[in-house]
Amino acid sequence: MAEIVQQRIEDRIPELEQLERVGLFTKKEVKSIIKRATALEYKLHRLIVNKEDFIAYIQYEINILELIKKRRAHIRYKFKREEIEFPIIQRINSIFKRATNKWKDDVQLWLSHVAFCKKWGTKGQISKVFSTMLAIHPDKPALWIMAAKSELEDRDSSESARHLFLRALRFHPNNKKVYQEYFRMELLHCEKLRKQKQELERAAMDLGEYEFSPEILSGKLVEVVYRDATGKIKEAAFVISLLNIAAIFDFTKQLQDSILQDLQTNYTEDSVTWDFMAKRELDAPGAGEELQSAKGRASDINRREERCCQVYEEGVKSLNTESMWTCYVAFCLERQKRKTNVQELKEQRQERLLGVLHRAHDGSLLKEDYYKNWLQILLSSGDAEGAASVAMAATQRYSQSVSVWSLSLQTLIQLGSADVGKLFQDALTHVDPKESLPLWQLQVQWSVANQSPEETEAVFKRGLLSAVPAVAMEMKAAYLDWSHTTGGYKKARKTFTSLQEIRPLPKSFFIRMIEIEKQQETPKMNNLRDYYERALQEFGSSDDDLWLAYIQEELGPLGQPQNCSKIHWRAMKFLEGESVERFTSKYTLHQTGHI
């Protein structure tokens, strides 16, 4: 091992001598580099090597390169790069190779090597790195795309990029991203050749010695890629993504028309197609003379939106599905949210949206989320009757949805409906009891604000009987708080006593009772101890904060400090796992006055 390390250090001597000779590094710095490099080399030759050691060595060498670059700029010395930088770059490539041979699965390590090659001008090495990496990781489409892009952008080799994409498609024949990037690459290559030809023609040069394939220049090869891609991936969204890529290039009008024709012929059963075709109408040219005034611009925008809606209307006639109506509603909603100072346009947009929402609902094809938007619009426009009607209709359409019931009940409460009490019962009958907590909370809020104390208490008692633990616990804590608010300490104490043995019990139930007791003019310490003891019966094995609060209570003006040691002993006995350590550290901080 020592011989290998010594040999590697000796191999560095010529470049270090050059660094010292030309004045980039001092003799002392050269000695420091040798010492550090020797230590790093020895780490790479241990029996058990770490990836971090390789990374540290690579980073050290890169830091030297960066320092050389700065000092060259400072003293304006530009010579002997082959004798100074090149050996360091070769050594870094060698260390990267050794690391990637040992940790072949670490993609980030491979990509770090690629990034280094790009930064330090060893682009010839990039192809070798990618080739080796792809042999080990052919299952990762992103790496194939990166390799092909590197060939095209860094090495200006469209042939190599094409070859890599074709190899990638053998491994990933149905990968959309690979096809999209391959399609883009062929368009870029075509654009580049067309520009080269135009420049040569402008210079009146003889094109005889240059080869410009007519198939590539005319976009025939791009069409072949498109046909192959859409033959394997028959999805409207994918076809549209290719059309959007083609639209970036100004010479693809014929290709775009062909893709549009294909989309309208073969993908009309997909709502994405109709959505795309409708939104294209927004970009259609308008009447130029009308656009001088705000009203003229608003009129032009309204005409465009009307044309979009005509396409959507054709879509819902041809494809009467929830996804189609969702696209239509989403478009109208997006346009309605756009700000405009022209009141007429604002009203037309709202009227259009309300009409579409109503028709989608009538066909039972309106998504759950859009009922909220519908209700907001009706409430903001003052249509209380319409909002109440929609709220009721939503609960019939999505009778098992907690969010729909909550939204509808909130709307009816806001409107002061007389049927809210009955509707709460209907809601709790239809929804899954495990998800019903938000409805119980809403019912309690409504009852407290609108019903008599007797009726509110009846709501609480129904909630206490729930078989769902989350509901029962929430109702106990809320019932105790309400009892104190309406009947004072005595009623709260009575409620606590009646519920203290009925499990499950939430921690907040006990904490609230402790707070109520401490709010009294003369709190009783025996009562506080009772509440703490009952809480610790439920949560004493895991809640370290509860034990600490009990100790602090005994240290207070009402407590007996001599009880603290017993409580501490019990806490250490009952607490489990990590809560023991947390309690110990918090108790220590408390004793030292830090809490």
From TrEMBL:
Protein name according to UniProt: UTP6 small subunit processome component
Cellular compartments annotated: Nucleus, Nucleolus
Domain U3 small nucleolar RNA-associated protein 6 homolog C-terminal as annotated: residue spans: 306-575
Gene Ontology process terms (BP): maturation of SSU-rRNA from tricistronic rRNA transcript (SSU-rRNA, 5.8S rRNA, LSU-rRNA)
Main location: nucleus
Keyword rRNA processing: yes
Organism lineage: Eukaryota, Metazoa, Chordata, Craniata, Vertebrata
Gene field: utp6
GO cellular component entries: Pwp2p-containing subcomplex of 90S preribosome; small-subunit processome
Signal peptide segment: none
InterPro entries assigned: HAT (IPR003107), TPR-like_helical_dom_sf (IPR011990), Utp6 (IPR013949), UTP6_C (IPR056907), UTP6_N (IPR055347)
UniProt entry tagged with the keyword Acetylation: no
